[in-house]
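> run fold Major facilitator superfamily (MFS) profile domain-containing protein
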Amino acid sequence: MADLDTKGTNVPSEGGSTITPVSRETHTDRGEDASDNITGPDDDLERHHTHLSRIQSIKQSLGERPECFQNTLQEVSFVAQATIAMSTSTFLNGASSIVTASIGRDLGMSQGEISWISAASTLTAGAFQLAVGQLSDLLGRKLVFLAGMSSFAVFVLLVGFSQNPFWMDVVMGVIGIACAMVVPPAGGILGAAYGKPSKRKNLAFSAYSAGNPVGFVFGSITCGIATRLFNWRAAFFFIAMLWAVFFIHALWAVPNVEAFDSSEPLKQRLSVFFKRFDTVGAILTLFGTGMFTAGITLGPADGWKSPVTLCLMIFGVVLIALFAFWETKYPYPLMPPFIWKDRNFSLLMVVTALGFMAFQASAFYLSYFMQEIREWDALTVAVHLLPQAIAGLLWNFVIGHTLHKINNTVIMMAGSLSYLVANLLLSLMHAESNYWAFIFPALILNVVGSDFQFNVANMYVMQSLPAQQQGLASGVMNTIIRLSSTVAMGIATAVFASIEVTPQGLEQPMLKYTRTFQVSVAMAGASVLLTPFIKIGTQGNYVQDQDDDATQVATPEKGSQPAGAQEDNTKEQ
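> ok
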């Protein structure tokens, strides 16, 4: 065969004749675009490579789907289930807060007994968080989670059949234990599944965090509709049925992400549990936090000088101090002492606690203000609180896309300032002030503070403990939130009750609400003052390592790496 040169000249063939090669121009004589309409194998290959490159780019930007999920549907379903778990306690609080007056009248409850409707579940939920967190890590997160979801549905159903104050308050206390059984395992599974910081993890945790503010509002709406159509009992029946459906969904959606080898026999796991579970620490924290919280709750009604109140608070503080000492000696503590040596961790917890104290007090008494001063029924109150739920979803979407881009200290400051402005608006409000000028912006800004600060703090806490202690990490975070909320309610209720009985308070019904909102202003102001001392950078960055393998890293500021985040690299902001 004759060889062709690249210039299109005549080339001799083996037989002596010549072959005139056809130039490329001869192919386009029929039309300049002819070759463009022909799809060759090279074009298909190039298109395939482009598609793969696009997919790879998305994966590098978002992060890989955790292997524990069979597909994206299960991943999304579990994140939704975890969000529901986070909303369990606040959903119940939202539902019960707008019908406490109806329940009190129906069951003949005193003011003190009415206050325990919400306080009982808050007390037990806060007291059991740490113990359940470690329990889920040792015995099985999915097992504890399913037990919590099912028991919540059962005991909420029992609340609907309450016949007397004792029945109501005791069962609400048991429900608090069920609430404590769902949040630490859900957070633990999320933290272990999304082991390293990434944008995907940011989005998952931002959705998870939305459960707190959104749960309260949707609980109020659910209860308001049911109460309007039937009565307060119907609201609890509906919640029980709803959580029964969530339990069935959880059987499939919740993956097995455990701190132990799934092939380990139950006997061996129980042996490890009895060896490592901090029984003494659990007893001290249960009774310590329980007694202190009970004292804070009883104080406004029985008086702060009451022997019962003083004994509960003093013994509670003593037991909490003993718990702190014990944790430094026990090899497998419920509250690892080393995490508090991290300056940023300690500051984050204090600032987040102050913010939630401001949020909890103002949210509760704003709802009460709508019922007593504005004289709105349950459904009307719920509808006016709806913007907070919608804003909560939107702000969590925003924070999920910005944690890895914006310095997290800036995000924390934005949250603190939002709390401050929101509660200033409420404290300046009069009885007949325009809803759109005061309450509406306060609802939006309050949830900014909640969503921004909880996301930053929760992400940092989960990185402070290793994968096998993610349930415990979630328990630490939620214990602090629950206890701070209880303290806030105790302080706010004390102020409310003291102003209510004064001549000026009797003459001006709005005054007690104004003073209560001013308490929230003080708490939010304290968080603003402390926030500048937090030094953290971004969280959830996704970069390439030297081997071109995708590696997810957190990038806190220099010297601010979480105490337990051994795998995360840092860079100075």
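The chain has one domain: 70-277+332-538.
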